[in-house]
């Protein structure tokens, strides 16, 4: 009986030491995080996950520390790498827990990370997963609605660009057909034999009159409609106003808290 106790003690002592070391690393990370020292917090949480690769709190809080430490003015490639690392930590935390509340918080933060990466599709899906685990989270509902509006605006812009491209292609085809028809008529006119000089002169005069008439008609068709020009000017002004409004909103977003900065701390 005594040997059994000794053996069990020897088995559990390393586990106790491992747990205690992880606990200390998490505690140090929490302290650094509260002080706003996110780089140090990231290192402390990394140490905790190295000591326990399945540490839900370690991965979750390290994701938060990475996200908080990101400088939006850094090189785009580095920004992408840091955001991807934060997303990876949140996903690892999600995989290692069955707690719906923790899953909801991790999915919320994962959605914010995807939105910062301009990945609307995955951002929306992450918010939906957060609400599947916690349907009453108002912060997630707000972010999801904002992301859906952005997706709708993006689709509308793509549709407008597609319609505009089709219209330009149609006009180009009509212009090419008109030019081909004119060249064909000119070739047929040159190939027709003339019976006498008088007839040739009359036909030449008639051809010049027809060309002059067609030229005048073409000029009339090319003249812009005042009403259309006015409508285009109004649309241009609306576009300028919309761009100015976006600049103001962007400035306010930077000065205040971002729509996607509602991080769910542990």
Summarize the SSE layout with pairings:
Elements: H1 2-34, H2 38-51, H3 56-69, H4 76-95, H5 100-116, H6 120-133, H7 138-191, H8 197-222, H9 226-255
What features would you describe in this structure?
With 266 residues, the chain is mostly helical. Among the domains are: 1-71, Serine Threonine Protein Phosphatase 5, Tetratricopeptide repeat (Alpha Horseshoe), CATH 1.25.40.10; 98-162, Tetratricopeptide repeat domain (Serine Threonine Protein Phosphatase 5, Tetratricopeptide repeat). Helices cover 83% and strands 0% of the residues. The longest helix is centred in the middle third of the chain and has 54 residues, at 138-191. It is elongated and about 105 Å long.
Query: How much of the polypeptide forms β-strand, as a percent range?
Result: under 5%
Q: What's the gyration radius in Å?
A: 35 Å
Q: Overall pLDDT, averaged?
A: 75
Q: How many E-type strands?
A: 0
- What's the SSE pattern? HHHHHHHHH
- Summed up, the helix count is 9
């Amino acid at each position: 009986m005594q040997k059994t106790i000794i053996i069990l003690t020897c088995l559990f002592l390393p586990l106790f030491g491992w747990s205690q070391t992880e606990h200390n690393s998490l505690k140090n990370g929490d302290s650094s995080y509260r002080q706003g020292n996110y780089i140090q917090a990231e290192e402390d949480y990394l140490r905790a996950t190295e000591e326990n690769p399945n540490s839900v709190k370690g991965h979750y809080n390290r994701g938060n520390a990475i996200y908080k430490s990101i400088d939006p003015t850094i090189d785009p490639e580095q920004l992408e790498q840091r955001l991807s690392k934060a997303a990876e930590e949140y996903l690892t935390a999600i995989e290692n827990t069955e707690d719906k509340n923790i899953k909801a918080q991790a999915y919320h933060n994962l959605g914010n990370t995807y939105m910062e990466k301009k990945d609307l599709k995955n951002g929306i899906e992450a918010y939906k997963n957060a609400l599947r685990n916690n349907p009453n989270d108002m912060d997630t509902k707000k972010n999801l609605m904002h992301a859906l509006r952005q997706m709708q605006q993006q689709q509308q812009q793509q549709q407008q660009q597609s319609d505009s491209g089709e219209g330009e292609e149609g006009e180009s085809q009509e212009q090419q057909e008109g030019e081909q028809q004119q060249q064909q008529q000119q070739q047929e006119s040159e190939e027709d034999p003339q019976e006498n000089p008088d007839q040739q002169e009359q036909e030449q005069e008639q051809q010049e009159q027809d060309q002059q008439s067609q030229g005048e008609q073409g000029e009339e068709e090319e003249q812009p409609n005042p009403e259309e020009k006015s409508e285009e000017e109004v649309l241009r002004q609306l576009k300028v106003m919309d761009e100015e409004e976006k600049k103001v909103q962007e400035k306010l977003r930077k000065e205040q808290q971002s729509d996607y900065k509602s991080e769910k701390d542990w």
